[in-house]
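Ribosome maturation factor RimP: structure, please.
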Amino acid sequence: MEPVVADAVARAGYDLEHLQIQQAGRRQLVKVVVDTDAESGIGLDQVAEVSRAVSTALDALEGEGTAGGVLGGSYTLEVTSPGLDRPLTRPRHWRRARLRKVAVRTGEDAFTARVGDADDHGVRLLVDGDIRYVSFADIDHAVIEIEFREPPAAEIATLEQEEGSR
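Here you go.
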């Protein structure tokens, strides 16, 4: 069923982050988490659009009789976007987190940093005033830190200056 859901999400222009199916009373709960590369993220209108696309695809699958073993009839569909507390695990997560403060744990170190540019293999981080390139393969866990104040202008300037010099 995941390929069907992923295809419906992709046709709507988004990325499937996670698919979970669980029993909820007599029905199945189908939870679909979607994301996008757009800096603005996903709003309610986009969630509704994806929900309609996934519902249509699942109903068609049920109609063919091919999903009967998985959904077993009626189901509840929940479409959502990932929250701020989700781990940064893909390059697009890091790109969207640009200039945000993050908590990072690698095999040998744990630190907070400000996110700079990310490529397909790693990210530039401002750590204690120094720019450090960290490979995604070296990151065990990373999440965005909630900030209640504007980020320090000096940190932003340091990242933008470093990125402009490349």
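Notes: Strands lie at 15-24, 27-35, 75-80, 101-106, 110-118, 122-127, 130-135, 139-144.
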